[in-house]
Design goal:
The protein is α/β, with parallel strands linked by helices. It has helices at residues 18-35, 60-71, 92-101, 116-120, 139-153, 171-182, 200-203, 211-215, 240-247, 251-254, 277-280, 288-307, and strands at 49-54, 75-79, 106-111, 128-133, 160-164, 186-190, 206-208, 220-223, 262-264. Helix 1 (18-35) crosses helix 5 (139-153) and helix 5 packs across helix 6. It is globular. Bound molecules: phosphoric acid mono(formamide)ester.
Length: 310
């Protein structure tokens, strides 16, 4: 297996080659097996310290990066805005320089500003892993999504994947669009009118007029929540009930897709809004919690490849 990875940082999916993504996914698949064995811990990152710096809320990404680091033998320090000297007026870039000067071995960063991890990569010396930056990218989410799809469907090539919901504010949609196109998947999008992405031409995505049209014959459906934390004042409020009726996924609408369609969601899910609770919990279709399992394996692979370079 080719193990080399020629990047110092993991900042986005757009800048990766298909072969580089395959290297990550192959290693992640092996870690997925390790994670189901009795002896899960390895010594790959023994003696290393990783700074988990989350300046936006997170459950899955922060926890799974921490579990991934610990499974590889590293230690983790968790860092947020509320308990740091940022509260005393220190700039975030100075705070990062402080942590960097203490010789940590890697940074995992989530920040609301598009491009912050790339900017940070100019002023720290250790590898940076982007854990989600604004509406720009969430590379490890797209990687774990790809791993989950491959486990169920064998390959991404020609797979009909429908991404539906608030595309405009979704970094998950952007990272998935970049990844799936590199693998020649057949990618379709549906966004409610207020969430149609302004960069759909740049993304080269096919937008449908309705959810039903987008999911017709789909192998994979990925539902996205409304990113309330990023909405501008121009977006008219809509009740959960009205949103669900017009744009949500339920078992009835699912009949449009293939019989063996898998239903995905990066979570957090808003049950009864973009997806019914019954569908989220339906073992015949939903792989939502398997995505979270694959998140740990994927982040182990990314940390291994970035932090074990000569
Ligand atoms: N999918 C995802 O990024 O979830 P969190 O916001 O909980 O990390």
């Amino acid at each position: 297996m080719v193990r080399s990875f020629p990047h110092k940082h993991l900042l986005d999916i757009e800048g990766l080659l298909k072969e580089e993504i395959e290297t990550i996914l192959d290693l992640a698949a092996r870690y997925a097996q390790t994670n189901r064995s009795i002896q899960k811990k390895t010594s790959t990152l023994d003696g290393k310290i990783i700074a988990n710096m989350f300046f936006e809320d997170s459950t899955r990404t922060r926890t799974s990066f921490e579990i991934a680091a610990k499974r590889l033998g590293a230690e983790v320090i968790n860092f947020g805005a509320t308990s740091s000297s940022i509260n005393k007026g220190e700039t975030l870039s100075d705070t990062m320089r402080v942590i960097d000067s203490m010789q940590v071995d890697g940074f995992v960063i989530r920040h609301k500003e598009n491009g912050f991890p790339r900017r940070a990569s100019k002023f720290v010396s250790s590898p940076i892993l982007n854990a989600g930056d604004g509406s720009h990218e969430h590379p490890t989410q797209a990687l774990l999504d790809a791993l989950t799809m491959i486990r169920h469907k064998g390959s991404l090539k020609g797979l009909k994947v429908a991404l539906c919901g608030d595309i405009e504010h979704s970094r998950v949609a952007r990272s998935n669009a970049h990844l799936l196109k590199k693998f020649d998947a057949d990618v379709h999008f549906f966004a409610p009118p207020m969430f149609v992405p302004k960069d759909s031409n740049a993304l080269g995505i096919e937008l449908h007029a309705s959810l039903e049209e987008a999911i017709e014959g789909a192998d994979v459906i990925m539902m996205l929540r409304i990113q309330n934390e990023r909405l501008g004042e121009d977006v008219e409020p809509i009740s959960n009930k009205a949103y669900h009726k017009a744009y949500g996924l339920n078992h009835e609408k699912l009949k449009k897709a293939k019989d063996d369609v898998i239903v995905m969601h990066p979570a957090p899910m808003n049950r009864g809004v973009e997806i019914t609770s019954a569908l989220a919990d339906d073992p015949a279709h939903s792989v939502v919690f398997e995505q979270m399992e694959m998140g740990v394996a994927t982040r182990m692979a990314c940390l291994d490849l970035l932090l074990c370079q000569d």
